[in-house]
Amino acid sequence: MHPIESLVARVARLEHAAGRRRRLAGALATAATALVLMGQVLPGGRLLEGEGLVLRDPGGHERVVVRIDESGATLSMRAPSGEELATLASGAGGTTTLRLAERGGKGGIELAVRFDGSVEAALLDRGGTRRAALDLVGFIPTLRLAGLRGSASLSVPGDGPQVLLLDEKERAVFRAPQPDS
User: Which pTM was predicted?
Assistant: First the structure.
């Protein structure tokens, strides 16, 4: 073999080996960069960190919204029109509320646990007015019903059950037991 042909063959082998080393170094650099970036995205094993999150449907409508601010945290699920259908809120004062709403109105069900330990389950009409509620404050349960022309409440404090019926102007029309005169 001629010395120049030998030299050409040797240069070709060296270039081939250098190409393999460059590809290997590039793959290692890519892997190292990916590991560093994953470490930035997943600090301390967390999947996601932030003060809010918005998930959109394929049409671009906000469907799930998480907000956190000074007043507390809120998770809301919405219809494509933007109406809130379900909301879970935890206020800075310690009150937690779950609201399930009807579509197209303000009616629905609301459950609340307040900072003082009292709880309430309420039914709201389409205008958002509380029509029925069951409260538990301390050890005293109270059932409240509100119609268009009056309201009623039944409570059971420590001294026995009490019933109160009010007219549309909130005047007592019936009370049992009667208050002491």
Answer: 0.66
